[in-house]
Write a structure and sequence with these properties.
This protein has a domain at 5-26 and 84-170: Ku70, Chain: A, Domain 2 (Beta Barrel), CATH 2.40.290. The strands form two sheets. The protein has a seven-stranded mixed β-barrel with strand order 1-2-6-9-8-7-5. Strands 3-4 form a two-stranded antiparallel ribbon. Helix 3 (186-199) packs parallel to helix 5 (248-261). It is of the alpha+beta class. The protein has five helices and nine strands. The protein is extended. 23% of the residues lie in helices and 24% in strands.
């Protein structure tokens, strides 16, 4: 795996040489192109001016900010360079906070941090200190200029992870939803707790899959093999009938009975990634 960049973790007078690596990977997201129905010719888009409908070349396109309806201020490359934050290849830790104090909604995108030559001892020391203290380092980092990110340095499975975070003003206030809080009685709560306990399991992320993407892959494979002809419709999945909201206890009781029976075993199906048709 190649690093996105090489730099260092900085806190106090300590500098730890590290490499930054992606912690996620594409699982083969299926992308579509728009085509003309008569001959499958690709549809292309043109850059057209709203004022006269004329196509505009890149040489005559500038960036503008709409400060009022229909009113723009143009920002030149020189303007943007004045505020651009250059990447110094540095994970600059500003403070350490308790991980438990950070709401999960602040976390966004994970990356791995691995020690570079000469950084092994200090890297391992920071990892152990974070593990034992229960704290994370809050840092500023520029991965792809010009944007600066808030980030957390966290211990993970014997290593360190850098997780990009949202700034506080990027998050919506859940109070905007005005969620009602009707009272619940003891019997309803006890039944709900029993259902949760019955359905409780150890976290095994590999059990869960993107079923839509898998079904779409099968459909594409079938259409390729059929020469792009129509294929038989799949049997629709049976949906569970929703329980009555007014009879909450009986709905939870029925759910508890089904959970105690355990899930019905499903026959495993081999999923293939769509292959391109030979030229």
């Amino acid at each position: 795996m190649r690093p996105l960049w090489k730099g260092s973790i900085s806190f106090g007078l300590v500098n730890i040489p590290v490499g930054l690596y992606p912690a996620t990977q594409s699982t083969g997201n299926i992308k579509f192109h728009l085509l003309r129905d008569s001959d499958s010719s690709r549809i292309r888009y043109k850059r057209v001016a709203e004022a006269d409908g004329q196509e505009v070349s890149w040489d005559h396109i500038v960036k503008g900010y709409e400060y009022e309806k229909g009113e723009y201020v143009v920002l030149t490359d020189e303007d943007l360079q004045r505020v651009e934050i250059k990447s110094n290849q540095m994970v600059d830790i500003r403070e350490f906070v308790d991980l438990a104090d950070i709401e999960p909604r602040f976390f966004d995108e994970p990356y791995f941090l691995a020690p570079e030559k000469g950084g092994d001892k200090a890297y391992n020391l920071l990892r152990q200190a974070l593990e034992q203290s229960g704290k994370v380092g809050i840092a500023k980092v520029v991965i792809r200029p010009p944007r600066e990110h808030l980030a957390a340095v966290k211990p993970l499975n014997g290593g360190l992870m850098l997780e990009l975070m949202h700034f506080a003003d990027e998050l919506r206030d859940p109070g905007e939803l005005h969620i009602p809080k009707p009272p619940t009685n003891r019997k309803e709560l006890d039944m709900a707790l029993s259902l949760i306990q019955t359905m409780a399991d150890k976290w095994q992320p590999e059990k869960f899959h993107d079923e839509y993407r898998q079904a779409l892959s099968r459909l594409i494979e079938q259409k390729i093999e059929a020469g792009d002809k129509a294929v038989g419709a799949a049997k629709p999945a049976r949906e569970k009938a929703p329980g009555k909201v007014g009879d909450l206890v009986s709905v939870v009781q029925e759910s508890l009975k089904q959970a105690q029976k355990g899930p019905q075993p499903k026959r495993a199906r081999r999923i293939r990634t769509p292959r391109r048709k030979a030229a």
